[in-house]
Design goal:
single chain; alpha+beta; 1 helix; about 25% strand; globular
Length: about 45
């Protein structure tokens, strides 16, 4: 299952509401301290 992220709290140039779809970026963010600044959503078609 593939996930995208939606930013809740701004960080590293992302602003609230931005959607992060790059798989490498998603994995890096979820593994780091900014994981609490985003929510996961299921990618369309998954």
């Amino acid at each position: 299952m593939t996930f995208h992220l939606v930013v809740l709290k701004p960080f590293d140039g992302y602003k609230r509401g931005d959607m992060i779809t790059d798989t490498v970026s998603v994995q890096k963010i979820l593994a780091g301290p900014q994981a609490s600044f985003v929510v996961r959503i299921r990618a369309k078609g998954n």
